[in-house]
Design brief:
285 residues, alpha/beta, Rossmann fold, two-stranded parallel ribbon, 11 helices, 12 strands
Length: 285
């Protein structure tokens, strides 16, 4: 049995699909049992546990061959990342109590970077889980191609997508969540010793201009990527409801300035940008 957190999201769902495709039993760890219905239909077990409930998590992780853990995305963390620290503490306590034979945790490209930014939350996760006396592995994926979902409607309606990654012609490592899920499942199933950290990119780097061109080809209209001036970032993030825009802006700085990068040589996934964009356009209708 393999316990999977985040199973109702893209990455956790991809991990579970990959495990089930290999005929491995899966336990869906969810806060709300009703949301696990699609997985029970596929034969998955269900454990109800919030990521802030160490005892419930320990029960969910007990008697498994491996556990996949991830933090929920938080693009507006309070100073000092108290939300992430609380969840990390509960997850670490649960793992220490359940002692699964193997743990794979979702981290990120740039988790090792010293400057504080939005991705520091995943660096904290690595520090805490890496200190456990368990077989813990970390997968550090590149920027998710699926982030382009937010570009589909403006591309369709206006022919312009806003770009915070700049210059817009400069490609950075990106990867499809399906590749992330498949690789995480392989890490859970791999026998014996393996790398403690696996960094993962897609088949080729991607720029905002590449995303615009790909969307244009799918939508049948010209689409261009328009850089958002740095001076406008904070106001825009606050208009979107952010109370603490600094970490998100600093993360974007890290990609644009090049200090949020892979620490070593990344593995390559197989899912192309064109495939992901096609799925996103179909999802957006």
């Amino acid at each position: 049995m393999y316990a999977v957190t985040g199973i109702t999201g893209q990455v956790g769902g991809a991990v579970a699909r990959a495990l089930l495709a290999r005929h491995q039993p899966v336990r869906a760890v969810v806060r709300d049992a009703a949301r696990a219905a699609p997985w029970t239909d596929r034969g998955a077990d269900v454990a109800v546990a919030g990521l802030d409930d160490a005892q419930a998590l320990a029960s969910a992780f007990a008697d498994t061959q491996g556990v996949f853990v991830m933090l929920p995305a938080n693009f507006d963390p309070a100073p000092g990342f108290p939300e992430a620290r609380g969840l990390i503490g509960a997850i670490a306590q649960a793992l220490a109590q359940a002692r699964p034979p193997r743990v794979v945790a979702l981290s990120t490209i740039g988790a090792q970077a010293a400057p504080e930014n939005l991705l520091t939350q995943l660096g904290l996760l690595e520090d805490a889980l890496g200190a456990l006396p368990l077989d813990v592995r970390f997968i550090r994926p590149a920027w998710f191609m699926e982030n382009a979902l937010w570009d589909v409607v403006p591309a369709r309606d206006t022919g312009v997508i806003d770009a915070y990654l700049q210059p817009v012609e400069r490609p950075i490592p990106m990867v499809a969540t399906e590749d992330v899920g498949r690789t995480a499942a392989e890490m859970l199933l791999s026998p014996g010793d393996g790398p403690r950290v696996v960094e993962l990119a897609g088949p080729a780097p991607v720029s905002p201009a590449d995303i615009a061109a790909g969307l244009g080809a799918l939508l049948g209209r010209p689409v261009r990527a328009q850089p958002v001036p740095h001076a406008e970032w904070e106001a825009r993030f606050r208009q979107q409801g952010s109370q603490h825009p600094g970490p998100r802006a600093r993360m974007l700085d890290g990609f644009n300035e090049g200090w949020l990068r892979f620490e070593g040589t990344a593995r390559r996934g197989t899912v192309s940008l064109a495939t992901v964009l096609g799925e996103l356009v179909a999802r957006a209708g």
